Please model this.
Amino acid sequence: MTTNLSVDEKKDVYGVIGKNPLRHDGTDKVTGRAQYGADIRLPGMLYGAMLRSPHAHARILSIDTSKAEAYSGVRAVVTAKDLPDVESKIAELGEGTINLLHQSNNVMAKDKVLYFGHAIAGVAAINAHVAEEAAALIKVEYEVLPPVLDVRKAMQHDSPILLDGMRTDELGKKGDYPSNIAAHYQAQVGDVEKGFQDAAVIVEREFFTSMVHQGYIEPQNATAQHNPDGQITIWCSTQGAFGVREQVAEILQIPISKIRVIPMEIGGGFGGKIGVYLEPVVVLLSRKSGHRPVKMTMSRSDVLAATGPTSGSYVKVKMGADANGMIAAAQAMLAYEAGAYPGSPVGAGMGVIFAPYRIENALIDGYDVLVNKPRTAAYRAPGGTNAAFACESVIDELSEKLGMDPFDFRLLNGAKEGDRRVDGPVYDRIGFLETLEAAKNSPHYRAQLEGPNRGRGVAGGFWFNYGGKSSASVSVNSDGTVSLLTGSVDIGGTRTSVAMQLAEGLGIPAESIRPVVADTDSVGYTEGTYGSRTTFATGWAVYEVGKQLKEKLLERAATIWETELDQIRFEHGIFLFDDKQMTFAELASRLDETGGPVVASAAVRPEQSGPAFAAHIVDVEVDPETGKVQILRYTAVQDAGKAIYPDYVESQMQGGVAQGVGWALNEEYLYDDQGRLVNSSLLDYRMPVALDLPMIDTILVEVPNPGHPYGVRGVGEVPIIPPPAALVNAIYRAMGVRMNILPATPARVVAELNKQKG
Amino acid sequence: MNKKIRVQATINGEEFEFLCEPRQSLLEVLRETLGLTGAKEGCNNGNCGACNVILDGALVNSCLVLAVEIDGCNVTTIEGIATPQGLHPLQQKFIAHAALQCGFCTPGFIVASKALLDQIPNPSESEVRQWLAGNLCRCTGYDRIVRAVMDAAQSQEKTL
Amino acid sequence: MQVLDYVSAGNVKEVVGLLTSNNGRARILCGGTDLLVQLRENRRRAELLIDVKNIPELNSINYDNQIGLLLGAAASCHAICHNPFVLENYPGLVDAIHLIGGVQIQYRASVGGNLCNASPAADSIPALIVHEAGCIIVGSNGTREIPVEQFCIAPGKNVLQNGEFLLAIKVPVVKENFGAHYLRFIPRNEMDIAVVGAGASVTLDKAKQRILSARIALGAVAPTPLFVEEAGVFLAGKEINEKNIREAARIAQAAARPISDLRGTDEYRKHLCAVLTRRALEKAIERARAS
Model:
């Protein structure tokens, strides 16, 4: 069930946005007709398989592919030898940066394998079974090295080193000895020492989180056709076709003009399908096989072992408040697992950790740490959940010690317009306080929770949201519809939420827009669908394109009515002059006689993406003998700025909650002491099933983002931020134990309960 | 050349005949040999339900059925849920309730839900959640899926 | 997968013949929900798969109130759990069989397969043990029967010799004032392998105050499903009270020899043994009293 609380004055003025038209791709998706990456079939297609490392840390001494190459049905085998040398160069990659050398080594290992499942070789054959059998015949000689599996141990001087050339970036200065600490960042404001001295109550706690995976149901896939003339076409399920094009171009040292990436429908990404894994390999295999198309899909166990989960972490938070509950000082240390190569989201974690609160004295230290686990990738608000888990738990404890309602504590300290975040930026108009008020006044929070072993927990959340570059092009069809091309892959209904923004501007129904997700040759540069940016930034691009379209159509109307441009009005899809009028569709049918086709395009890079805030409430019941936590009731409250497509905004909230619940209660990567992933299957990597969750109620708050024509704020990421803290806070109120490890599995809950008893 | 076995089966009401190796799963043959790509591979070991089909009235994971096992059988895939008259109420309700985001799990859920409504025409929320426990969705949190299924059940009841 | 050939057998003799002549290279295929996964992961091997699903005796579910229940080894969990005789007379079995996987697995997986797969965590086995079920095995030397608790000999290994296969499972008629229950602990609410499973059955005296006999069996806490005979021996003749139930649970816990693996630590499993045995016994007693 859902409620909408809007502070937007214009809220009743809109014709299209804020409503729920049927999504344009709905029929294709409920009939199985939608084409996802693995659905593609091309004449002469070969199937690929990868050989992956059985060791977590080893030097590669030799690779002998001869038996695989000779195996009946095999057409090509490639290894890192087939990859050109790349420089150690940093590139932007969605919500983070990558080092292209590391990216290349991750695609196929060169001198070392750095995690269990690290790709070593690719095989193309007449079918997937043959490719797999052949891959198993590749002989690799390893010098096995001790694995590094714990983030704090990895930071110690005597730890085995993953990358010999790694020197710590110590607050901007390069260190001079080998280390697994890729970087140490720091942010501070005011004087924490003094702040803590002034505090009446101080809470200091440590928190541990495990590596977790995005868990998209569709495994990675890629198909490539390398033509004899050097033109390359790639079909893949990706969050960003232009990003794939760039990465493949860099890794294979091929000009981007030779590469066309056609994004297929995508079965979930959550940040995990921004970086490439298979694409460069299938291109090489296609070339080597004599220019046949090659398709490769990942098995689920390879997805878990060898794509990009998010960091496990160690986070320490110390927070002090005065007797009235005002936060006097806050300090945090965050150590995040980067996996095999640098680039954990610890920086984002540092930005998130105290972001919802106004704090004058704060010090945050963050460490990006290498361990022998897969190279981490973005996972929905990357770095944020680990940080918020810590901070929101400490705030819960502080507010309890002060005898304050946990929402009141947050309201007292909550950030608003003009406040400065610890890592620097000053807030524009934001909606945290409104979100907290809505949560505090919600039916859920007002309802009594009764019964033994039951408790209610709350938590807040923040996410930056991202802007980024988007392009769009449109053309008007003679029947009054408008064809819209964008480069934004549609993972969750954004074809329609973007189309709605165009429809709004033109005063026509959403159904009159024909949205198409275009490939890299067919539309201007567009960053991927991530960062909660698509409805915001691509929506802005179509807003701009809509303005251009309107201008051009006004000119056509002026031609028809033989008058000046400024004599014509355009309201709700109708052109008006004197006592004459023409609908959009009528004018569209007369474009030929007034000058020919009408098209327009725009490219934007909006700056003010408008942060999102959330507040969640959860009721749990804990079985005191088994430690199992059942979720009785859940409400997610969030500031969406302006909900363009409300059903889908709510669905994003519900999905983020579900992932957060899994993260909190059951999901974790389990490695043995050799660094082998033991639970690389959906049987034992336990994501929530329908029976694990109740209905998830949502409350939409709308405090418009002043930085967007319709007030849009990104909505996709912030909902994954509060759930773990909300759940452990609820467990505390139910059972009196504070869980500081994620996941708070039944066994861990029982252990804490026993500690409490004994 | 590995041994191939000839299989005849009725799929979505049409007669099919194909050759396949004994080791090929029904999922693989549906997708690669017969071009019915609606059933998806999410895990290949019976833990996600994305590959669901109905085999002689039974809801199954087609990744755990060998293609050779369906000789003489009747199979319904997602491609067979809609009729020439239009979308099945489940399909309509999934769209109406926004019960999908990426849509990858949707074919599996719709096939599973159809099997549910064939057995239990008016299921309670908990019966729906229990039945659908074998279908993983990572995008929606299941809320809208459950609502869509129960609404479809209601609308089917009305037309009976 | 190494599988090269497949045959759908028409009768029992054919199966025995194929198993014998293929000398370990052939395997029985029932629901396939364990076997296919294992073959793909190279945890088991087979060159020939012998599908027994089309053999009538393998699929039959027969109940006779003198002999009891006869479950064909290939009968699906779904068929068994929807059989009116089974539901009426063996709710304690339905508890367990109904937990094997989700609906999709239920329609294919068989109790025979669950038994032959011999996972220490198999759900059906503790329940069968507390019902005093027996395995009917057929091979080139004819037919033999052994109690279910002797069927599994190591993780993933059963007593079947080359040329033998499981034909059916026999469950005796339940006595008067009998009640049984099986439950397991899993971290989610569905789709998990048992961290610990516990089955209990009791036969009460006429006054339903005293336990005449009882059987307790545990899953996932030993290399094979564990029949804790001593717990049943302790309960025989005892009054129904909390103290005796707890003592039986303690005996079961003491008998458990769990390992630590990705599904649970030995410590947590030991802890759960007592909790689940107690809960299983309480429910079994409740059912016996209501019978």
Notes: The domain at 467-604 of chain A is CATH 3.30.365.10 (Aldehyde Oxidoreductase; domain 4). Chain A is about 25% helix and 25% strand. Chain A touches chain B through 58 residues (CB under 8 Å). The longest strand of chain A covers residues 327-339.
